[in-house]
Amino acid sequence: MSTLTPSAEASAAPAERSFARQGLRLGIMTMIGRAYPRLVAANREPDWIFYEVALPLLQICAFALVYKALGAPKYIGIVILGGGMMAFWINVLWSMAAQLHWERQSGNLELYLMAPASMLWILAGMAIGGMLATAVRAAAVLILGSLIFGVTYHVVSYPLVILAFLFSLVALYGLGSMLASLYLLYNREVWAIQEVIQEPVALLTGSYVPVRALGPIVAGFAALIPLTLGLDAVRQLVFPHLFATLLSPGWEVAILGVLVIVFCGGAAWSLRYIEYRAKVLGRLSLKWQ
Amino acid sequence: MSHPAERDVPAIQTVNVRRVYHARGGRSIGGAKAGKTVVALDGVSLNIARGEIFGLLGRNGAGKTTLIKILTTLLAPTSGQAYIDGMDVTREVTKVRQRIAMVSGGEQSGYGILTVREQLWMFAQFYGVPSKIAHQRIDELLSAVGLGDQANQKVYALSTGMRQRMNLCRALVSDPEILFLDEPTVGLDVEASRSVRDYVRQWMRQDPRRTVLLTTHYMFEADELCDHVAVINHGHIVAEGTTDDLKRGLQEHARFQLEMAEWLPAFTEMLRNRDGVVEAQAEQRNDRTQLRLALLREEFIVPTIASINEAGGRVLALRRIEPTLEEAFVRLVGDEAESQREAEGAEVNG
Amino acid sequence: MIETTSAGGLRERIAASRTWQTLRAATWLEWQARGNWTNPILYGIYLIVRPMTTSLVLVLMYWLVSGAHAHGGLFGFLIAGAAAWTFVDQIVAGVPQAVLADREEYAMLKYVYITPARFLVVLIGRALPRMLVAFISFTVTLAFGVAILGVPVDVRMINYPLLLLALVLGFVGITALGIMLAGLALVLKRGAWQMPQAVTGALYLVSGAIFPVAVLPVWLRDISLGVPLTYWLELTRRALLGSRIGETFPIASTGAILGWLALTTVILSAVSVIVFRICDYFARERGQIDRTTGY
């Protein structure tokens, strides 16, 4: 191994910085490139309004009408808010967690692995694209649902609402990125796993009923899913004193902050593991048909 | 039961078949961009006799697959008629389907969840073949194409070549009378392609009532397999006949190559002055001379050789030079494209 | 060498038995597809988890409102509806997706389509195993509701003939819907995969799956009366829960509802076949039988 002379070190430092700058620039470009199809291309055809707004709204209306039938329309707001947040879970499940599996099926995964930028940038692009695109859909669901059922909101603290919302989204998409890598270990099971977990997560995160209704033990476990605490905190902050809560909003936001670190770190780790399997073991190219 | 008019009608017949694709509102259909119209077939008329392997040659987008789709009841023609065994493919769909089968190349088709045997059995059921006969045929077919050991293997685990051979068995398990092969060897290695071709030939030999319509980009494949071919370009049939007809059509003069033991420069002059000789070129190769002759007609070769002998020359070998099918094809579709461009130019100018 | 078995009488025998063979082979294919979809344990969980989760959500909603673990009349209504909806999920959404998978994933639809088998028979065959799967799911969910959640179903008091009749008529109507949507899925270019979910979502709302249609706005209530699923759900509930549950049609007799179910099922079946034929025509006209959309 050669040893660098002081003069060589001196000249290498700016080169490394320049390389780092180039790496950052490349990463950001990669991220924007991967986010583009979700932000722009996916909105080209207007039918997303029907499939991604009207369709979830139908289900939300059905559950809202259950509260009406039970003579408790005051709880309809819980369903509307839960339905809006559910849009993010569906997006994370089908367009983050399963995405690398689909990419493998279509032959894109190898291209991503060959690209000069880290796969983390690609995952970040998928997440940001998905998050922003879903935010539009979730907002539409929320506004329309609120208008249909005449739901009103009394916001206690805007900063906390925004913080709870953002933390829960970042942690949720971190979880999605982590699952995206781990799902590559499976083939035909992916679809099945997705189908199996979609509804129970909706139950556990308290999409249609406050999570406290599950009982403290189940709710405690459910709090590991970022959506649970995010939803509970936001609900507390916009529908004060309506239902029994899990923790105070401040504590819930703090825990969400921890979940952000855990899931984003987990995503980076699982991606490294998958790259190892792909490159060293050569175990990621089987296409199931 | 055979159709009563089976002996009198062509196995496949198309009469002025036209197919137009219209694309609407930002969508692309059949190669037609939004708001545009593409004429995939423009008055195609063909008669394919029973017992033939008929090749349909054309470039990508020429209309080959569209024609096969129409004949296999997958696509309706915009106008014109198409018949299988005299039965209209748009009106007598079920009767047509009883007689046909298809294999397409370049796709990974197959239910990966089933074994090879299960997949073939299932298709036999769709054709109403009793299970006992179906299993017997499956065994025979698989062993004939070299897949006997893979009978109980899941389809997803087959290689591309194996999958295509299985697809050929899938098509044949119903014992069709007319088989459509749409680029069946695309993406296959040499051995797998040869295996498919060999088996098609073998299958045709077993029953004189059988007919194959083959589309392919590989000219040697068409040359090797087909009794008759048609060349389609921009939805038109631009040439039809035997492969020899097509090749001969390309040649203005009869061309020969002669190997000569010795050569004198005076021979060239003598040959050029002979009746019927259009061109004579000699080239020295090692201790021999290679003479290339272009004659007005084939029959001029005998007196020409006699005159060489009389002049003291010695002919060691004689070979007729034929153009390849590929050359004929390139010339045909090139000419067609050229005349089309000219026509378009005239239209614009006019 | 291959024996030439096609000549003479064989073709006639083939034609006579083809419908039965097609039904059997299509049923078998779907069964294989279901069984191979994933490993059996995961599949078992999938079968019961969805309806059971919906039931649990409804139970929690009920308890949130009632403030206690009370089991009123509406409690059984909710759980029976959630359990029965599995049939719609499995067949109405599942059959079109099976057709799309054949076209887009397996690239086999065109080969099935050009066989002499009637495509409608193939689709009915594809629906049958889903019916069985849905029945298992329905039974397990109800058993869970009765044993754990305290749904007021007395096994000795169930009106079994009525339940059987409702299930048979329901299967006809639900399969007809599945066939209609399969036809539509063939001609849609975008959204073909989501369309069945959209339709089942709309039906979930208008047919009173988890709430009495009385709470719907009047115009939606009128629509619900034209949907056989509304009558089917009501009959299923009556067969299971007895006359204690009559929120959807409190004054209508069981016979009248049966009549409406039969009538709307016949109409729906006829409409479905017509729509399917029209879609089949357009799919062939546009060359969509073998075209993958890539969506």
Task: Give keywords.
heterotrimer; A: 289 residues; 76% helix; 0% strand; disordered N terminus; B: 350 residues; alpha/beta; six-stranded mixed sheet; four-stranded antiparallel sheet; 14 strands; 37% helix; elongated; disordered C terminus
What features would you describe in this structure?
The complex is a heterotrimer of chains A (289), B (350) and C (295). Chain A contains 11 helices and no strands. By secondary structure, chain A is mainly α. Chain A has one domain. Mean pLDDT of chain A is 82; it is low at 1-12. In chain B, a hairpin with a 2-residue loop joins strand 12 (277-285) and strand 13 (288-295). In chain B, helix 3 (116-126) packs across helix 4. Chain C has one domain (25-285). At the B-C interface, helix 2, strand 6, helix 3 and helix 4 of B face helix 1, helix 5 and helix 11 of C.
Describe how the helices and strands are arranged.
The complex is a heterotrimer of chains A (289), B (350) and C (295).
Chain A: H1 6-39, H2 48-69, H3 76-97, H4 99-106, H5 108-114, H6 119-149, H7 158-183, H8 189-204, H9 216-222, H10 226-238, H11 249-281
Chain B: E1 12-22, E2 37-48, E3 53-57, H1 64-71, E4 79-84, E5 87-88, H2 93-99, E6 100-104, H3 116-126, H4 131-144, H5 160-172, E7 178-182, H6 190-206, E8 211-216, H7 219-225, E9 228-233, E10 236-241, H8 243-250, E11 254-260, H9 265-272, E12 277-285, E13 288-295, H10 301-310, E14 315-320, H11 325-349
Parallel strand pairs in B: 3-8, 3-9, 6-7, 7-8
Antiparallel strand pairs in B: 1-2, 1-4, 4-5, 9-10, 11-13, 11-14, 12-13
Helix pairs in contact in B: 3-4, 3-5, 5-6, 8-11
Chain C: H1 9-37, H2 40-66, H3 73-92, H4 94-104, H5 109-113, H6 119-149, H7 160-187, H8 195-206, H9 218-224, H10 228-241, H11 254-286
Helix pairs in contact in C: 1-6, 2-3, 2-6, 3-6, 3-7, 3-8, 3-10, 4-6, 4-7, 6-7, 7-10, 7-11, 10-11
